[in-house]
Specification:
DUF1616 domain-containing protein, 7 helices, alpha+beta, three-stranded antiparallel sheet, about 240 residues
Length: about 240
């Protein structure tokens, strides 16, 4: 009697591969779901995710401007706010239509690889924005989240810039409890202001760039030199006056 052959042993990687393939199919099915409710849900979800990444990164950057990786997270959120709805309201429906009706080989090939091209363009934009941040990416959030407040100081920093003489003029308001102010750029101390109302001027050429943006930091300190509050400002985010 011939013994039954032993069943072939499955490779240890076979199950993870099946799981990954199924997850990819599920992702594509959601990506290409084209009913109006799916378009709305996907666009809304990406819009909320983009706003969260943008605002959270801007907040953290105001406290830790040296965490440059956050610029790429902020760029991802900033780009996603537009690119998410654009993808699911315009690009995906257009690709689905092309796959059904395209006859030219070039058009058919483009429709087959449209999702990869879309993601490639999107992440290229993210990398460019993260490496060279533009003013609108920081303008809305920097004034609100550009301070690290202490428990006993409710001061505000007011700055204007002048392109005529390349100067930034700043003043600290409501500076009760502040002994002196230290102004620095990229870790380099520029000046110390010892007398109220703590007014100072900065030459724009003295400001160092942090991820493509000229930036300076203003620290409010007490008589012992302890930091009470900190403000970080990007040059492009300061209004002209």
């Amino acid at each position: 009697m011939t013994p039954n052959p032993e069943p072939a042993r499955e490779s240890p990687l076979a199950y993870p591969r099946r799981v990954c393939r199924q997850a990819w199919r599920d992702t594509l099915s959601v990506y290409y779901a084209n009913t109006p409710i799916w378009r709305f849900l996907k666009s809304s979800g990406l819009l909320v995710l983009g706003l969260f990444c943008w605002s959270a990164s801007s907040l953290l950057l105001s406290y830790r401007p040296d965490w440059t990786i956050l610029w790429y997270v902020a760029a991802y959120g900033f780009a996603l706010i537009l690119w998410g709805p654009l993808t699911h309201f315009v690009i995906v429906p257009l690709v689905i239509r092309l796959r059904r009706t395209a006859e030219h080989p070039v058009t058919r090939g483009l429709s087959r690889h449209a999702s990869k091209l879309n993601l490639t363009v999107f992440f290229t934009i993210v990398i460019l924005l993260g490496t060279f941040p533009i003013a609108p990416m920081t303008l809305e959030f920097q004034p609100d989240f550009g301070s690290d407040s202490g428990p006993d100081v409710d001061a505000t920093l007011e700055c204007t810039k002048s392109t005529a003489d390349d100067l930034v003029r700043c003043q600290i308001s409501s500076a009760d409890g502040v002994d002196h102010v230290v102004v620095s750029s990229a870790g380099t101390e520029l000046q110390t202001v010892d007398e109220p109302p703590f007014e100072f001027e900065l030459h724009t050429e003295d400001l160092e760039e942090v991820v493509g943006q000229k930036q300076f930091t203003v620290e409010l300190r007490d008589a012992e030199g302890d930091k009470l509050r900190q403000f970080t400002r990007n040059l492009d985010a300061i209004r002209e006056g």
